[in-house]
């Protein structure tokens, strides 16, 4: 499968200054930008910056960023699912995962996450993909936001809906381990029926185990 990437950008005005939401950002541009020290959700900022530069260089990898002047203050990553995850088992070459989305505390509540999703889907190439995201409540910043699990889930679901991702049922054990966890997906307009059927089989693997 050919992985086309077309760059898009959008300005977002916030009370803390204007942001540029843009991407997919090329590896060499990402390497030159500063990376905010509050981007700590997944690993220390310097390491996460390097990880994003690595993803940007993958054929299917896409990094969409929120940029304040020369500083990355938020990002979303798209790449093939981790080889250890269920979602890679079907070897569906047009299935990619929204792996991480993070925004620094200062700019939360300004619609940054929503706009990262909107800009992600501006690229027509996304119509060739099944885009999935797996949401686990233990990754959520409940302490920092002051929200309970269900309030956070509602906010997160609304944000994902902005990118056209919808809730999908699955018997995946990790997702099924807590009712707030969920699988969300967006099936592009040009995705063929065979890929959709493979995705459905991945969602419900346990029913075939008897």
TrEMBL record:
Transmembrane segments: none annotated. Pfam families: Acetyltransf_1. It comes from the Bacteria. CDD domains: NAT_SF (cd04301). One of its GO terms (molecular function) is acyltransferase activity. Residues 48-117 form the N-acetyltransferase domain. SUPFAM superfamilies: Acyl-CoA N-acyltransferases (Nat). InterPro entries: AcuA, Acyl_CoA_acyltransferase, GNAT_dom. It is an enzyme of class 2 (transferase). This is Acetoin utilization protein AcuA. It comes from Anoxybacillus andreesenii. The lineage of its organism: Bacteria, Bacillati, Bacillota, Bacilli, Bacillales.
